[in-house]
Design goal:
Largest sheet: 7 strands, mixed
Number of strands: 7
CATH topology: Alkaline Phosphatase, subunit A
Number of helices: 13
Radius of gyration: 19 Å
Order of helices and strands: HHEHHEHHHEHEHEHHEHEH
Helix content: 25-40%
Structural class: alpha/beta
CATH class: Alpha Beta
Mean pLDDT: 83
Low-confidence stretches: 1-43, 319-324, 332-359
Shape: globular
Strand order of the largest sheet: 2-7-6-1-5-3-4
Bound molecules: zinc ion
Strand content: 5-15%
Length: 359
């Protein structure tokens, strides 16, 4: 029970812009209502164990150094409650189409064949978004995506139960909140776009005030979504894994090149079953789908040709972790080498525990 209370405490720091306190009494009430075990370390939990669910938050064009240097209390709360890769690797074609395709399919562009933002060459029959693979094993799971950038819904998704592109970040957050409060998604992918938009207009830099503003605005959207998640009536019977990542970095007003400033991305693996406080290295965008599948207890079929591995999770049998993801040319210089000159690094252990602050 103590461990469970700690887990609840980890969820509490999230704050949305206009916060109501309704979620907190609901969480407190759930403590005394709870009868099951606090954690479910086994892959095939009994029916009394919490139901595992996954929220993936994609933030377009978000540089890791901006995430860390801007006041982002909600994202930093997720970092504190999980494992964090501040120097993960994107697809070598650092555009949104190939980037999100790699996140969703678990393979690089030479397999998924997405080279640009038109996404007209997507090899989706052989390398579909992981939702399709998931539903083949677990048709009972309700899967959904709510995205700002419509081509993700229109070109990359298949075999998904609900796919929305409501037009802007505010609507993505509000539709996601509604779904979390009134629906019952098992796997939910969200996409926010503000940092990419600001980067193209004003520059992808942690020193650019408009870019910083966009990063902060997305953090508030994440806060709204997390507040809704915390207010779910059945939360005490659920076990959520929250993954947060981006598709590419950027420099000046551009991205698309195979350089560190464009290819360096981040990954947050957060929740009760994550390796809390761990700094991850050797992580890339193709690790997102295997991590979600491992958490849900669905084996990855070698025939799928996936190129990543599950990262940042604890209490999983070794066979669910692929030994080593295949690397693209040029990965070595940016893959898991930790901080480099000019990086802004805040170790997870040094992040504030009670009062969210930025820098
Ligand atoms: Zn993008």
């Amino acid at each position: 029970m103590i461990a469970f209370l700690i887990c609840l405490a980890m969820l509490l720091p999230f704050r949305a812009a206009a916060r109501s306190d309704a979620a907190v009494p609901a969480l407190q009430a759930s403590v005394s209502d709870r009868t099951g075990p606090p954690d479910a370390p086994n892959l095939r939990p009994d029916p009394q164990a919490p139901r595992r669910k996954v929220l993936i938050i994609g933030i377009d064009g978000m540089r890791p150094d901006a995430l860390l240097s801007v006041e982002t209390p909600n994202l930093k709360g997720l970092i504190r409650a999980g494992a964090f890769a501040s120097s993960a690797t994107a697809d070598s074609i650092t555009r949104s189409g190939p980037g999100w395709a790699s996140v969703l399919t678990g393979v690089w562009h030479d397999k998924h064949h997405v080279y640009d933002n038109v996404i007209g060459t997507f090899h989706g029959d052989a390398y579909p978004a992981f939702f399709k693979r998931l539903k083949e094993s677990r048709p009972d799971l309700f899967t959904a995506c709510i995205v700002n950038w419509a081509p993700i819904r229109d070109r990359l998704m298949s075999g998904i139960d609900l796919a929305l592109a409501p037009g802007n970040d505010d609507s993505v957050a509000s539709r996601a909140s509604s779904l979390l409060l009134r629906g019952d998604p098992d796997v939910l992918f969200l996409h926010f776009d503000a940092p990419d938009h600001a980067g193209h207009k004003y520059g992808f830099s942690r020193f650019s005030p408009p870019y910083r503003h966009a990063v902060a605005s997305v953090d508030r959207q994440v806060g709204k979504v997390m507040e809704a998640l915390q207010a779910r009536p059945g939360l005490y019977r659920e076990d959520w894994l929250i993954l947060v990542t981006t598709d590419h970095g950027g420099s000046f007003r551009h991205h698309g090149r195979d350089i560190r400033a464009h290819r360096r991305v981040f990954l947050i693996v957060s929740g009760n079953d994550s390796m809390r406080g761990t700094r991850l290295s050797g992580v890339s965008l193709v690790d997102v789908a295997p991590t979600a599948m491992a958490f849900l207890g669905v084996p990855v079929d070698p025939g799928w040709g996936w190129e990543g591995k599950a990262v940042g999770l604890k209490d999983l049998p070794p066979e669910t972790m692929q030994a080593e993801g295949r690397r693209q040319a040029g990965d070595a210089q940016q893959d898991g080498n930790g901080p480099q000159a000019g990086d802004v690094i805040i170790p997870a252990a040094a992040l504030p525990v009670k009062t969210p602050v930025g820098g």
